[in-house]
């Protein structure tokens, strides 16, 4: 399991890093073929009280997966981004399974 968490123009948070690692551990357990996940935590001035951004890039066989979320707090952004990544992983796994069955 290789998780790279970067805080871009945001103060590093050990608790947020731990939260992200715990959430991503489940994904690594379900999808062994993931090589690495890069997480970028950013802040943006946003008048709608949003602006806490979480970007994730997943390296795996084939094209990389990418998801981003902009929420009121980082925990919500992380959860939403992970949800998007899981949806993409399920589609990719189904595609792998379909190809293996038809071969």
List its traits.
103 residues, alpha+beta, Double Stranded RNA Binding Domain, four-stranded mixed β-sheet, 2 helices
Describe the secondary structure blueprint for this structure.
Blueprint (H helix, E strand, L loop, with lengths): L2 E6 L5 H17 L5 E8 L8 E8 L5 E7 L2 H29 L1
Parallel strand pairs: 1-2
Antiparallel strand pairs: 2-3, 3-4
Give the proportion of residues in helices.
40-55%
The average pLDDT value, as a whole number, equals: 89
How many H/I helices? 2
Number of domains: 1
* Number of beta-strand segments: 4
Give a short synopsis of this structure.
This protein is 45% helix and 28% strand. With 103 residues, the protein is α+β, with helices and mostly antiparallel strands.
């Amino acid at each position: 399991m290789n998780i790279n968490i970067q805080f871009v123009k945001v103060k590093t948070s050990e608790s947020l890093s731990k939260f992200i690692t715990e959430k991503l551990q489940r994904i690594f357990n379900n999808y062994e073929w993931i090589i690495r996940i890069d997480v970028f935590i950013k802040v943006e001035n946003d008048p709608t009280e949003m602006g806490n951004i979480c970007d994730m890039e997943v390296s795996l066989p084939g094209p990389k997966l990418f998801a981003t979320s902009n929420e009121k707090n980082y925990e919500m952004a992380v959860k939403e981004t992970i949800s998007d990544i899981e949806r993409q992983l399920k589609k990719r796994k189904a595609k792998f399974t379909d190809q293996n069955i038809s071969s």
